[in-house]
Amino acid sequence: MIETRLADGTLVMARPLGLADRSQLAEGYRRLSPESRYQRFWVRTGGVIGDKMLDRMLAGSVEEHGLWAVLDPARDFQGLGAASFWRSNEDGEDAEFSCTVLDEDQRRGVGTLLLAVLWLVAYRQGIRRFTGYTMPENSSAIRWMRDTGAEAEWDGYKVIFRWDLANLDKLPASNAGIALAERLAELAEELLDGDSAS
């Protein structure tokens, strides 16, 4: 578990999620707006996440899969957002990255904090690239991914982003890029050398 502060001074914790967090993960999904659920999961569903999806998200070894959340212990429902990576079966140095932040907590740096945490956790596991996907109409996600240093490619259906985890020189001088660089520097010692990534 990691304790840090958001840019507005809010004390938050970042920690990996496990089977005991099943009900909290389901509640976080329920609290997303229909549009946010669609942009993240690409399906039009109600506010209930299926058992199969929960099983998939909460299972897997730490070498192949990471799922972390940012929590505000001062709130009744503590979850602000969560992010995950899945190592590719075809390329062990690549992993699919995805991130979801509750609607009311967007633009607070939660996503950037989650990207930094998973960046370091995945790097420790030998992953050197993150690949992320978004729909072309999701302009805020596209802007954030570019601003955090991902390179974009359009395949005719979705936008594909790739972060080079081994090359911090590619981080742009945007506000999000600077914030990501600062988070990586803040967390590197603990997550690359410590026990927080397990």
UniProtKB/TrEMBL annotation:
It holds the Pfam family Acetyltransf_3. GO terms for molecular function: acyltransferase activity. Keywords: Acyltransferase, Transferase. InterPro entries: Acyl_CoA_acyltransferase, GNAT_dom. The keyword Acyltransferase applies. Its EC number is 2.3.1.-. It comes from the Bacteria. Gene3D superfamilies: 3.40.630.30. Residues 51-150 form the N-acetyltransferase domain. The keyword Acyltransferase applies. This is GNAT family N-acetyltransferase.
